[in-house]
Amino acid sequence: MKKFNIRKVLDGLKEASSSTPSVQVGPQENHLIQENLQSEHFQLCKTVRHGFPYQPSSMAFDPVQKILAIGTQSGALRLFGRPGVECYCQHESGAAVIQLQFLINEGALVSALADDSVHLWNLRQKRPAILHSLKFNRERITFCHLPFQSKWLYIGTERGNIHIVNVESFMLSGYVIMWNKAIELSSKAHPGPVVHISDNPMDEGKLIIGFESGIVVLWDLKSKKADYRYTYDEAIHSVAWHHEGKQFICSHSDGTLTIWNVRGQGKPIQTITPHGKEDGKKPEPCKPILKVEYKTTRNGEPFIILSGGLSYDTVGRRPCLTVMHGKSTAVLEMDYPIVDFLTLCETPYPNDFQEPYAVVVLLEKDLVVIDLAQNGYPIFENPYPLTIHESPVTCCEYFADCPVDLIPALYSVGSRQKRQGYSKKEWPISGGNWGQGTQSYPEIIITGHADGTVKFWDASAIMLQVLYKLKTAKVFDRNRSKEDKGSTDVSDEDPFAIQIMAWCPESRMLCVAGVSANVIIYRFSKLEVTTEVLLEVRMQYELNDIESPDGGGGGGEQTSALPTPGASPQTSGPPSHPPTSSNNSDGGNVPCLKVRSTPLKQSPGYQVDLVVQLVWVSGEPPQQITSLALNSSYGLVVFGNSNGLAVVDYIQKTVVLNLGTVELYGSNDPYQRQPRSPRKTRQPSGAQWSHLSCLSRTVIALRVLYLSCFLLTVLLSVCPPRGANPLDHRDNSFSRSRSSSVTSIDKEAREAISSFHFCETFARKGDSTLTHCLYVGTSLGTVLVLALTLPPAGEQRQLQPVIISPTGMLVRLKGSILRMAVLDSTGSQMPPAYEPWFEPNVTADGEEREKVRKRRPVSVSPSTSQDLNESQYAVVCSEKQAKVISLPSQTCIYKHSITETSFILRVDVVQMSQGMCVACFCANGHIMTLR
C-alpha cells in the first residue's frame, strides 16, 4: 500500500519562520529537551470506517459464507460478517453501485456501477481488490444476474438487450440477446429497459427476461429463441420464481402481484392487490410494488415478501415491508425508506425448498434483520456499530491507554442493560474471521447525542463495539406543564442534547454538560441503588451591562459579567423550594429542565451524584456551557460560559467559586471595561439559589460560597437550528473569532471561558514550590491561573472548604484557547493527579468503609524530594498559535503561528514514541503536527 507522509510543517518550534516574531533565548535553554521527532515519523494509513454506510444503494448476501455486502451512491463497498468482521472498499470512479452479485462460496463479488462499468472483486485476500473490470460505452447497464455455480454473468441494458460475460476471463462473449428478437411481434413498440433476469430453477438454460413495459419473455439459450411471452398492461418492477420452476410472480407499478404458469401464455392465473381494498368492482389505486420475493417451505405455506404497494390514501404512513404467509399478512413499518431487501434461506440451491428464516432490510439510514421463524416477526439486535448516529452525535471524546479493567467493567454493566423485543436467536450474518489485533492498549470512544444519551465504545479492535449506554434524560421530568414550556425551553428540538463531556478513566467519574445549561456528575457503581430524591444545585445570576471604552454601550445584545453592586457572599442554608418573586412570571429563578422528584432506580453503571442547573433571570435564559473539566483527585468540577466560571466540589456538594470573567483579571484587565447601570426594564433580584435535597433520604444542608455573581445573558447554540447554515453565526460565537485583533468591543464584551486544565505547577511567577492549579483559557486568547488550596485527605476533606484564589494572567495568544498542558524538565507530559476508582455504594460496615474513606489520590506530579527549582514548561495552543512558556519564570521560549488563513478545530498534546508533539486538525481539512 502506498504510504502518505504528512506534510512537514515545522522542524521544531524553535526554528519558526523568520516572518514570525519569536523570543530569542540562550543556547542552554534550547537544548534542555531532546527532540527526535521528524516529519517521516508521521504517516496516514486507512484502517477502518465506522458507522452506517452513507447513501446505500444496493445489497447482496452469500448464503454459504454468510457475508453481507452493501454498496453506496459514492462507489463504496462495505462487507459485514460476524460481529467484529467488517471491511471497507472504494471504487476509484466514485460512481454509484447499482447492483452486487456474490460468486457464492468462492470469495468473489461482482459490482455494477452507474457509469456502466462492471468489476470483479477478490475477497480472499486481507484487503479486497479488483481483479477485472469491464466498461460499456454504448449501452447503460440496468440489471445483472449471476446464476448459482455458473460462469456466465448476464447483463441487461437500457436498450433492452442482454450481454453475457465470462466470469473467469471477464470478457464479453459473442452471445447477445437482442430485444427485437426477444419480443418479435408481441409488441410493436420498444419494450423498455431490462428490469429483471433470472434462470429457471430447474433449467439454467431457460431465462426469464422482464422488460419495464410489462412484457416477460422465457428465453431458450440453446435454441436462441423465445419459448413463451407474457404480456401485462402495467409496468414490471421485479420477478421471482417458485422453486419448482413452473410458476413465477411479477410485481407491478399499480400495486398488484401477478402469478403466472410458465406454460400458460394468456393471462395470469392469479392477480393480488395486497394493500388494495375492493370498492365495488374497482380496487383502490396503490403505489408500485418495487420488489417481490417468492420463497417456499417444506412443511408449510410459501412466503411472499414485498416492499411498497401501499394505498395512495395512506398519507403519512411509514415505509413498509409486507410478509404474506398463507392467509396472514403482516405489515412491518420501517423508520426510513427501504432501499432493498433480501430473504435469507437455509439452502443456496434455487431448485429446493428455500426454508426462509430471516429478511435483511436495507434502509436509507439503518440495517434491519427480521426473524421469520418467530411469531410477530421480531428483529435481531444489530451487533454492528451502525447506530453511531442513531441520534445525531453532538460531541465525541477519544481515550487511549485506558486502565485494563475499564473495558471489562463497562461491558459487564452494559451487557445487563435490558433489551426487550428482540429475537432470541443469534445474528444470522456470521461469516468471516479476523485474526488477533496487534493493538496493545485499550481505546475507548465516548459519544454524546442529541437525545441526551452517552455511549461508550470499545475502539481497541477493528470494529467499534458498544460497551455501555447512558440516558441522561432520565434525570429530568419530561412531563412539563404548559406554563413551563413557554418560558423554560432553551432548545425546542433537543433539550437533552449533550454538549460537552469530561471523563476520568482512572476514577471512572463522568461529567456531562447539556444544551439546557445543566451539568450532571456521575459515579460508576457495580451495585444497583434507588435514589429517593436527586440532589440539585440551582445557580442564578444578576443581569448587568458593559459600557464600552468609548462610552457607546455595546448594544442591547452585547452584555457581560459583573458582580452585583452591594452583593455579599452568601453562606446561609438554602430555602427548601425556589423563591417566588415577580420575576417568576417571565422565567425568573426557573431552570430550563425540571429534575425529577420521584424515586429513581439506578442500575449498575453510571449513577447520578449531583445535578447543577443555571436558571432564568428576569426573562433571560441562561447561557449555554462552553467548557468543562473535572479532577477526581481534587474532587472538583469546573464549568464556564460566555461570562465566567463556577467550581463545584462534588464531594461536599458545594459551589466553591462563582467568578465572572472580568474578576479573573483583577486590576490587570487588559481591556479596561467599564460597568454601566443595569437596564431599567430589569429589576435586580440578588444572587439566590435553591436545592432539591439528597441521595440518602436525609435532607443535607449545603453550604454555597458565592465570591461574586456573573451574568448569563446571550444564548449560544451548540448546534444551529435545522435548515440553518452553521457558518451563518460564526463570528458571533465565542470560539470562532477570526480576527487577530483584540480591540473589538464586540468580542471583548463576549469573552468566554473556552478551556480548562488542572495541574500541579508554579502558580505565580518566581514561585519555588508546586501548587495545585487550574489553568483557565478564554476566547480572547488569555490564559489565567487559579491556585487551589485543598484540605487533607480523609475526614478533613469532607468538612473543610476548598479555597481558590486567582493569581493573574500567564500568557496571551491570538484566537480562542483550545488546549493547555504542562511538561516536566525532560519534555514529558505531566497529566493531572487522579483518584483510583472505588465502589461508592459500599454495603459493608467497619473496616471496609474506613478504607474507602481514607483512600488517597494518586499524584503523577514530581515528588517532594525532587528539586523543585527545576523548570517546567506550559504548552498553550489557540485557534491560531502555539506557545511554550518556561516555568516558574513565565518566559515565552517558543512561539509559532500555526495558521493564518484557517483556524484550528481540535488540538492536543500527544505523546509519541520519539517525544511530545502538538497535533492540530484545521478547518481546511489539514492535519498538522508540531514538535
Automatic annotation (TrEMBL):
This protein's UniProt keywords: Exocytosis, Repeat, WD repeat
Domain Lethal giant larvae homologue residue range list: 273-378
WD repeat residue numbers: 229-263
Any Gene Ontology biological process: Golgi to plasma membrane transport
InterPro entries recorded: Lethal2_giant, LLGL2, WD40/YVTN_repeat-like_dom_sf, WD40_repeat_dom_sf, WD40_rpt
Presence of keyword Repeat: yes
GO MF annotation, one: GTPase activator activity
Region described as Disordered: spans on this chain: 546-596, 667-686, 845-865
GO cellular component, as recorded: plasma membrane; SNARE complex
Pfam families assigned: LLGL (PF08366), WD40 (PF00400)
UniProt keyword Chaperone, yes or no: no
Ranges of compositional bias, category Low complexity: 568-585
Protein family according to the UniProt entry: Belongs to the WD repeat L(2)GL family.
Protein name: Syntaxin binding protein 5a (tomosyn)
Annotated organism of origin: Seriola dumerili (Greater amberjack)
